Amino acid sequence: MQSISEEKINEIRNSADIVSIISDYIPLKMHGKNYFGICPFHDDHTPSMSVSKDRQLFKCFVCNKGGNVFTFVKDYENISYIEAVKRVADKVGIPLDVSITKKNTSKYQKEYEIMEYATKIFQNNLNSKAGKDAKEYLESRSITEDIIKDFQIGLAIDDKTYLYNALVKKNYDLNVLDELGLINKDGLTGYDKFQNRIMFPITNLDGAVVGYTGRIFNGEDSAKYINTKETSIYKKGNILFNYYNAKNYIRDNKYAILVEGNMDAIRVYSSGVKNVLALMGTAITKEQIDILKKLHVPIILMLDNDNAGALATHNIGLEFNKQNIETKVVRLSGAKDPDEYIVKFGVEGFKSAIKHSISFLDFELNYLKEGKDLTNTEELIKYIKEVLSVIEDKDNLTKEITIKKISDEYNISYDTLKQEVNFESEKKETPRKIIPSKKINNKYQVCAYTILYFLMSDEKYIKIFNTKLGYLKNSNERDLVSEIEYYIKKYGKINLADFISYAENYDIIKDLVNTICETINFEELDDQIFMDYIKALSDILRKENIKEIKNKIHNSVDINEQIDNINKQIAIAKKMIDEKKEV
After folding, report:
1. Would the pLDDT of 222 be above 80?
2. Are residues 68 and 79 in contact, defined by beta-carbon separation less than 8 angstroms?
3. pLDDT at 120 over 70
């Protein structure tokens, strides 16, 4: 992890109001001294996450997630701690000179290295004399130099062994090159998989190149696209095209657009709408749904304007509903896909289409009409029953509005339709169930963690601890006390929000600090509560000491008895030997 000074981290955190930062992600409402919102870290339906402006901490009372502003941003955006610090620094306008590197999985370090090297070769090709025609083609498609750079677009030249020779010179294993889909192995030699094609790299969630889409640009090949096969580092169902480039734009815009293909994503991105992701097909996987769910934003489905696209929109929308992902739909009338739509109607027309997106429910009601003759009584009855089935698990207001629409559109009695749907007579709020933490499993830990929580929160408690107790039995807890004392000696004071940031740089205490923050919380620090836990822990340790002494005494008695028994056996054996001698 790159190093950022503690002073700089504290400057950033002290400049960032946690209420303001978290409000950028989720709505917060003030209740008493604190702010409350729907917790994004579990399936929350009532506001269970508290945010303290005074202490600059957040805490969910259901799933126990808690910490400071960096912790929230890190976990919400599913990014590294350094990225979270940089993100907050950007929000509060503090320059932070750190580079966020693209992470490679060490197990496949060589594979990532090869893909990175191949990508550079393709980029060099595009910028060489051999890339003139390809460059002109990209310009004709309004793909600028900035877009070429953002997507690392390159060129596989019209040479069967150009890439092969370059990779072999680097002593890369032929079998690995074949497995990665860069070459086709032919005995002890090989030839390039991609030839005379513009190369669009496919990156994983961390921005590392894992595959390619190669596109013809001069019409000489019957196959318009050639894609990398699935490899050890490229699993099509585990990634979304353009995720690494788009994730910050998605956070800022608070929604994501999901299209079918990577060329659609590049076209949308080049139009200035950069919060776009692509499936690279019409199917969606559980892994991709999980990625989208972690974004915590509405998803606008903008799939191709054909029957397959409509079917995919319907199927994906149903899966999103199951996962409580807010879903909207744009059907691009007059064009087959977003790429063609932007060419025909321009950027402003495209942005207007986004503004007029409809809810997935409205799309579904229209979709259910497809292929039905609604002037036919039987088909109309079938359609209405399907609609009523769709809204069966919706809230009362959605049911009310939908039934009113159907009633007005088809001149059917509102009361008749309403009788077909179950309405909840009274909205019942799901009781808030407190989930006990599995990390605290005995009274000692409850007391020790609570005491450590106080020690990290205010410097005055360390003196009381040293005077009244001064000892914790677990080595990691003692290490944490030592770091707390060092921190207070260095800065003269301590608070939990700053100390959480400090702990991130020290593996020896980081996990314990995170565990304590997830399992212990006090809205206010109360001296009497601290003393109560000191006394309780002192009693626990005293009882454990007494028990240990008793065990030692007991074990000592057992040993003496064993020695007596051995001596008796020796005496008996000796007597038997003497008797035999006499005989």
Report:
1. no
2. no
3. yes
What is the distance between the alpha carbons of residues 15 and 10, in angstroms, rounded to a whole number?
A: 8
Residue 350's pLDDT is what?
A: 95
- The helix (run of H) or strand (run of E) holding residue 77 is helix 69-77
Residues of the chain with CATH 3.40.1360.10: 243-366
DSSP code at position 44: -
The answer to whether residue 517 scores a pLDDT higher than 90 is no
Burial string for 509-535 (b: 16+ CB within 10 Å, else e) reads bbebbbbbbbbbbeeeeeeeebeebbe
Tell me the C-alpha to C-alpha distance, in Å, between residue 100 and each of 2, 78, 85, 106, 548: 9, 14, 11, 17, 52
* pLDDT recorded at residue 348: 95
CA distance 375 to 257: 36
Query: What confidence category does residue 276 fall into, taking pLDDT thresholds of 50, 70 and 90?
Result: very high
> Taking the domain 439-583, which CATH number applies?
1.10.860.10
Kindly state the tokens that stand for 428: 């019942």
* Amino acid 580: pLDDT: 46
DSSP line for 352-416 = HHHHT-EEHHHHHHHHTTTT--TTSHHHHHHHHHHHHHHGGGS-HHHHHHHHHHHHHHHT--HHH
Instruction: Report the distance separating Cα 385 and Cα 375, nearest Å.
Output: 15
Q: Minimal CA–CA distance to 452: which of 528, 504, 512, 540?
A: 512
Q: Which CATH class is domain 109-234?
A: alpha beta
pLDDT at 299 > cutoff 70:
yes
Under DSSP, the state recorded for 229 is P
How far apart (Å, rounded) are the C-alpha atoms in residues 296 and 256?
10
Q: Which two tokens stand for residue 433?
A: 């169930």
Please tell me the distance from the alpha carbon of residue 242 to that of residue 210, in angstroms, as a whole number.
12
6-92: which CATH topology? DNA Primase; Chain A (3.90.580)
- Please choose, from the candidates 237, 257, 235, the residue with its C-alpha nearest in 3D space to the C-alpha of residue 246: 257
The one-character DSSP state at 206 is: T
Q: Give ranges for CATH 1.10.860.10 in the chain.
A: 439-583
51-65, 214-228, 257-271, 309-323: lowest mean pLDDT where?
A: 214-228
Question: Helix or strand or coil: residue 525?
Answer: coil
* Residue position matching structure tokens 């960096």: 70
Q: Of 250, 340, 349, 344, which is closest to residue 296 (Cα–Cα)?
A: 250
CA dihedral of 394, 399, 401, 402, whole degrees rounded to 10: 90
Q: Considering the chain, tell me which residue range(s) the CATH 3.90.580.10 domain(s) occupy.
A: 6-92
**What's the CATH class of domain 243-366?**
alpha beta
The position carrying tokens 């209405």 is 384
Average pLDDT over residues 343-362: 94
pTM reported for the whole predicted model: 0.69
Cα distance between residue 80 and residue 86, in whole Å: 10
Tokens at 77, concatenated = 């955006």
